[in-house]
Every structure is written in structure tokens, then in C-alpha cells.
């Protein structure tokens, strides 16, 4: 009987780690899928992707409720709070639309001028843009962390077989991520739009000779990638406090996810994101929290030593 109880407890612990890993990995996946389609299609290294995540989180806060202001320039001007209180569902709808438009503007007025420039130039301009957004938000809203309340319909625990009580919103994050990633995958793989984008990636000159303009599909791809980052900010906000540093904190794991999975491979980003999230949670819950960041870098190094093109990448992806 004791062995049976121990076995159930062990199974419950394993399943809890896997579920928490799926949730943590889901945030990485949302960010990485957007990064991957931009990098794989447009060959553009967007270090401002974390800033789009940051904007998504703050826009989500603004839309869902009233946020008190204790410091920052707005507080000095006498503004005590900000927000319109439309609720979480409204944030899930409005934020990706707004960040999609921001992505379109970014592609047209920033990225487009750097497509034929070296990667270092792309990194410098986008990282500089990210710092501007981060410090602007810090100056206006202050640097203190703001709690992002979970939606009322997804707050509290839910009883799961074997596992027991598990946070309902963590399951919500996994579900939302799955729906969005499947939608983007279907768009890229099974629509005329996706075929044009893929053809342009392989041989843009031939596609142009056939009379197809690639500027608009590329613009939409950039917007979709930005929108995914914005959604990640909304769904990831309730899992931790929101502050101006969260964009840069999420950027490096997102890039690791892209590189490990294979540049331009949506399915690779999913596999890599879930691997990194599960490893990170495993190290935290087994008492090695201080090594959780080191662990994902070590895993990335090992995989790239064995497969420089990533888990599901091809030699073409790194040529």
C-alpha cells in the first residue's frame, strides 16, 4: 500500500512538473513562433521583439482595469491611475490588433530599410528601439512592478485527476497558445498566402518574376509575429508582475527557442519551447532554482553542438 501511495505521489509530481513546464514553455513558444517566422521569412533579426511583449503586457493592464500609479512622470503630473476597465477578454482581442498595427509600422519604417544590411546593423537598431520603449515606459509609469490580475473566469485552482488542484489560468495559457500556434501554422502551411511567403523565402526573385509582389505578404508576416508577442504579454502578465524589464528578460529565452528548434520552423519552436520550459521548471521544483537559467543555456549549447541547424532545421536554414 505504501509503495502504491508513493507511486501515485511520484506520478502526481511528474505530471505537475510537466504541466508547469508546458505553461512556461507556452510563453516561450508564442514569442518564438513570431520571431521564427520573421527571421525565417524576412531574414531580419528583431531584437525589439521583447519590447512588443512588454507593450502587450502594459496594454493588457490598461485595458483590463485600473492600475494605480505611485511613481513616474504621469504620477508627478497628478495622474493617480490609468486603465479603461474593459476586462480580460477585451484585452485578448484588442491587444493583438494594436500590436499588429505597431508591427506593420515597424516593418515599413524600421525593418524595411535594414533588410539588405548586415545582421549587426539589424540587431543594433532593434535593440536600441527596445531600450527606448523600455525606458519610455519606465519614465512615464515608473519602474515598480504592477500585479496583473487573472481573469475571474480562470482564477483559482481546478481539480485534475492524479495531479489534484492545479491553477486554472496556467491551463488557460496552454490552451490559448495551442489555438494560436495551430492557427498560424495552418495559415503558413495550408493557404495561398502561406505558399507565397514560403516561395518568396526560397526564391524571392523567381516569385517577383511571376508578377507576385512580396512586400505585402512580408508586411503581414511581420505584423503577425508582432501580434503573437503582444498576446504573449497579455497571457503571461497574470503569471508574474509587470515591470519595464520583462521584455528583455523574455527576449533571450525566446531567441534560444528559435535557434534550438530551427530558424523558420514553427514546429521546431514548439518543441524547443516546451523543452526549455520543462527543464526550467524541473530545476526550480527540485531545488536548483539558481541553475534554472544556466540549465537552458547548457541545453542550447549541447543541442547546437550536435545539430547546428537546430532540432528540426535543415542545412538551408543556416546557409
TrEMBL record:
The chain crosses the membrane at residues 25-45, 52-69, 81-102, 123-141, 169-188, 218-240, 252-276, 288-306. CDD domains: TM_PBP1_LivH_like. Its main location: membrane. GO terms for cellular component: plasma membrane. The keyword Cell membrane applies. Keywords: Amino-acid transport, Cell membrane, Membrane, Transmembrane, Transmembrane helix, Transport. Belongs to the binding-protein-dependent transport system permease family. LivHM subfamily. PANTHER family: ABC TRANSPORTER ATP-BINDING PROTEIN (PTHR11795:SF442), BRANCHED-CHAIN AMINO ACID TRANSPORT SYSTEM PERMEASE PROTEIN LIVH (PTHR11795). This is Branched-chain amino acid ABC transporter permease. It comes from Haloarcula mannanilytica.
